[in-house]
Amino acid sequence: MTDAPKTDRPVRVWPAVALTAVYWIHQFYVAKSDDMAMYPRFGSKSFGGLGFLVLFLILWLSNGTVKGRHRVGGLVVFLGGLVLAIVAAHRSFEPIGFMMTSIPLVLTCWTAWLVLQRLSAGRLWPWTLVAAVLLPFAYVDVLRFDGLDGRLTAGLLWRWEMTDEQRFLASRGAGAKAETGPRPWTVRAGDWTEFRGPQRDGAARGIRIATDWKAAPPEKIWRHLVGPGWSSMIVVDGFLVTQEQRLESEAVVCYDAETGKEVWAYEYPARFEEGVSGPGPRATPTFHAGRIYALGAKGTLACLEAASGKPVWSVELAKEFPMWGLSASPIVVDGKVIVFVGGPKARGTVALDAATGKEVWAREGGKESYSSAHLVSIRGTPQILIHDNKRLAALSVADGAVLWERAGESENIIPMTQPHPLEAGLLLVSSGQDLALLEICEEGTKWIAKEKWTTKKFQATFNDLVIHDGHAYGLDNGILGCVDLKTGERVWKKGRYGLGQVLLLADQGALLILSETGELALVDAKPQEPADPVRIAAIKGKTWNHPAIVNDRLYVRNAIEMACYRLRGP
Known about the structure:
By secondary structure, the chain is an alpha+beta fold. The chain folds into two domains: 14-158, no CATH class; 164-566, Methanol Dehydrogenase, Chain A, CATH 2.140.10. Helix content is 20%, strand content 34%. The chain is built from six helices and 37 strands. Strands 3-31-32-33-34 form a five-stranded mixed beta sheet, with no helix packed on it. A four-stranded antiparallel beta sheet has the order 4-37-36-35. Helix 1 runs antiparallel to helix 2, helix 2 (38-61) crosses helix 4 (95-119) and helix 3 packs parallel to helix 5 (126-141). It is globular.
């Protein structure tokens, strides 16, 4: 066998090596950066990969030290391999996602081939280039895409592994059902009746717990697998209600809060799934006057008897929905169920008769929002706050009339957090890109919203804030921070928790944090920088769901499992 033909000059490799090094250094910086907001992070990762591809192909095609037929052949193999690999990829990969995952690996192996070609004085056979390009595609083809975390890092698993949903479904036969007969539910002191608690502010009142978690850590009461979804939980009269995905059905599920055993489940045909966060409903059910109101990701609003799970009525609010599904939790006010719908036709907000499900009024608004309707009373006037990608608006409960509004900075910015009413008509609002304090007042017969301050130095994306003693506390791009409400200045920023959630123990002035990785931590809600807290591993997996707390019981869940912990007394 003869040797492969040599080129006349050594292969030029340094431009490709330099480009590859710059790309991976940049990606490492983006992944580790604590102060980079989600949108710039997404843009950096996306355009960084695109720039890597374009510049590499220019360098390859213009590299005169590689034979012309090899340059053209390499390009053909790359393009052909990409098309075939996309066709063969696991269904969890969308084409763009597959390209973002595979192409940097291919280009890196391609660069390694150039280096080896130079080191071997051009003796590598052409088939080795084919292998260098195609093998990385083949590697990604045996993977399954498992969504993104808060830093936009992809989760990748072998395509033959069972999904978390399959493991949950396989475990259902082993779980006993609670032997609890139907009885009317009564709201007890401390019950968590709707999204983020009775006042939708993430604050638990009437609770004091031990703060030394080294000596008295939270005690696990129960823990089990749960169907996928990003719904939070409500807890009423000893029962816990949440939403899950079960194969091709969305399910509103009731569990015994003390044992974790299933009591009843109401299922209906619907499955929403997208690449970033996976399958499952997103909104949290609401309890009111013996009934459960739950909104599915595809727009089914169901009213159920709380005691039995039997349907009272069900309506389809939308056939088209925002990019990440309908996530707004219903609110019940004056006999009306009010919920944001949005969608491509910008239907906005809808109010239905709570007893019958018939539409009472509808008010056009933005197309997208992942923030829920919020009831406030400003200067004695009840108002429903709706924050969408078009505006923050206050609507009349009776007929949906717009009382006042504040235009958003850009319709590309989609709100994901709740507004926070303060005293004397003040309102704290986060768009995810900035934080603003508004003063709502009347001038003649009109309501207006005046801006007292705004800051871009604190960005709560889909992590809600809590308020205590003149300060706001929350996760600023994954890092716990404190903001002075008088000035808007950030007081401190410390402790990395990813895109988790924060609860306030109002009587104790303490922050209960559930991190994105399922860890619990307890931090003082004070303007002084906190010490490093003890962290307790509570559940496994990406945790974006809001926790719920009732007296000394803390309930946590994500798209994989759910658990109850007892918080020891002081």
